[in-house]
């Protein structure tokens, strides 16, 4: 790994306070302090959404599944469980099988559909989402989550990031 700048070290120190440790993916992102800052700042901003924590984690799992990121699937599977998602629904997202929680199923479907269409959602798509109880604000929150998770998904693909021991428990 390349040398960490002072700015990157400050960001890692702040992340450690929040997580209790520094996840390996953040250590990888520290090579680019600007990208690390973008990810951490964006994540902090997205903490204040209308989607609750369980819902956000299910969307994150869907993005990470779509992008094939084993690191993020493991990490966010654990976080989703802590946020109240069932083990069965977490595994269903990872395996692209039906979920028992209907709301989560709709969010996952909306996420996969948005990813597959690269955001080019039709009026019919948006109407279907609305029928599922997913309004325009929530659609844009899904887009925000897609953007942030793509940063770490791609970083993990590039760096071949080792999974942290804490995420191996899930």
The average pLDDT value, as a whole number, equals: 95
Rounded to an integer in angstroms, the radius of gyration calculated over CA atoms is: 16 Å
Helical amount: 55-70%
> Sheet bearing the most strands, described?
none
Which structural class should the secondary elements be placed in? mainly alpha
Described by the principal axes of the CA atoms, the overall outline is: globular
Q: Count of helices?
A: 9
Amino-to-carboxy terminus distance: 27 Å
Strand content: under 5%
* SSE pattern, N- to C-terminal: HHHHHHHHH
Q: How many β-strand stretches?
A: 0
Uncertain parts: none
Description:
This protein is mainly α and about 170 residues long. It is about 70% helix and about 0% strand. It has nine helices and no strands. It has helices spanning about 5-20, 25-30, 35-45, 55-65, 70-80, 85-95, 100-115, 125-130, 135-160. It is globular and about 50 Å long. The protein starts with 5 loop residues before the first helix and ends in an 11-residue tail after the last helix. The mean pLDDT is about 95.
Descriptors for this entry?
170 residues; 0% strand
Short note summarizing the structure:
The chain has 170 residues and is an all-alpha fold.
SSE layout and pairings?
Layout: H1 6-19, H2 24-29, H3 33-45, H4 53-66, H5 70-82, H6 87-95, H7 102-116, H8 123-131, H9 136-159
């Amino acid at each position: 790994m390349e040398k960490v700048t002072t700015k990157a070290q400050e960001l890692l120190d702040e992340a450690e306070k929040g997580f209790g440790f520094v996840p390996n993916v953040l250590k990888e992102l520290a090579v680019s302090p600007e990208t690390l800052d973008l990810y951490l700042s964006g994540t902090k901003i997205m903490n204040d959404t209308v989607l609750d924590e369980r819902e956000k984690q299910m969307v994150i799992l869907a993005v990470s599944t779509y992008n094939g990121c084993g690191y993020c699937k493991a990490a966010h599977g654990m976080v989703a469980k802590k946020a109240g998602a069932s083990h069965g629904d977490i595994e269903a997202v990872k395996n692209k099988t039906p979920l028992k929680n209907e709301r989560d199923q709709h969010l996952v479907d909306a996420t996969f559909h948005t990813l597959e269409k690269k955001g080019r959602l039709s009026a019919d798509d948006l109407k279907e989402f609305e029928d599922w109880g997913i309004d325009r604000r929530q659609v844009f929150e899904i887009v925000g989550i897609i953007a942030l998770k793509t940063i770490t998904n791609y970083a993990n693909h590039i760096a071949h990031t080792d999974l942290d021991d804490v995420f191996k428990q899930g």
